[in-house]
TrEMBL record:
Its EC number is 1.14.11.-. Keywords: Oxidoreductase. It is an enzyme of class 1 (oxidoreductase). This is 2OG-Fe(II) oxygenase.
Length: 237
């Protein structure tokens, strides 16, 4: 068990959230789908910033089972992340939940850590929602996302990209050189491992890049944990 009082960079990895054979099957399906497109950044197609082949599976009925499986794996990691860093959940909102006495009590870090998955899950689902999932392929020796970037971006008129709270990546393969997810200010490189999940904050504090893989293509699934919209959290139109 991790010591919650120990210093942390808020970058967490969780091994084997998905089976390696399942990941391999997904890679093969992605490769043979014929649905991938050049990867985009917020400003559009800029291969000098990001060179990848991407497939957004959210909203596509034929991919719904894959999307659900990925979201389930991420949700399990998210529960562990929230117990490690409960203020991810409770600092933005003053949440109250029913206690054993039937009265409502403010949710504290101690209570978050003690709650069962069954009790914590509906609270998390009230506050957060999953983002659209991209499958991405980075070609060996060429592909990558070398531009230092964060995940918050103010261009969207509805502010969807400003609702991003955490970023996540599930690595679908390994066996290549380099290709790490590198965080600038934390001076940390996360090495891809098949079936492992990366979770980290979405803001500028966790500016990062995707290093170029060598000796083999890199495949990932990636998205965000977003806040529910204000009308969902607080009511109103």
């Amino acid at each position: 068990m991790t010591d919650a009082s120990a210093p942390s960079d808020f970058i967490e990895t969780y091994d084997s959230v998905l089976d390696a054979s399942w990941c391999a099957a997904l890679v093969e399906r992605f490769k043979s789908s014929g649905q991938d497109q050049p990867g985009l950044v917020g400003g559009g197609l800029m291969p000098d910033l990001k060179d990848s082949r991407d497939l957004t599976i959210s909203g596509k009925p034929e991919w719904v089972e894959v999307e659900n499986a990925l979201n389930r794996a991420v949700f399990g990691g998210l529960l562990a992340y929230l117990r490690r860093y409960p203020h991810t959940l409770i600092a933005p909102l003053m949440l109250e939940v029913p206690g054993r006495d039937g009265a409502r009590h403010r949710l504290t870090p101690e209570r978050v850590r003690e709650m069962s998955d069954d009790d914590l899950s509906p609270v998390v689902q009230t506050v957060f929602r999953p983002g659209a999932i991209n499958l991405q392929r980075y070609t060996a020796g060429r592909g990558g996302y070398p531009y230092w970037h964060c995940e918050l971006y103010p261009r969207d008129p509805r502010g969807e990209t400003l609702h991003r709270h955490l970023l996540w990546t599930i690595y679908l393969n390994d066996g290549f050189g380099e290709g790490e997810t590198e965080f600038l200010y934390q001076q940390r490189k996360v090495t891809p491992r098949t079936g492992s999940l990366l979770l980290a904050p979405a803001a500028f504090t966790h500016t990062h890049r995707g290093n170029r893989p060598q000796g083999g293509d890199k495949f990932i699934a990636t998205s965000w944990v977003l806040f529910q919209r204000a009308e969902q959290l607080f009511g109103g139109g």
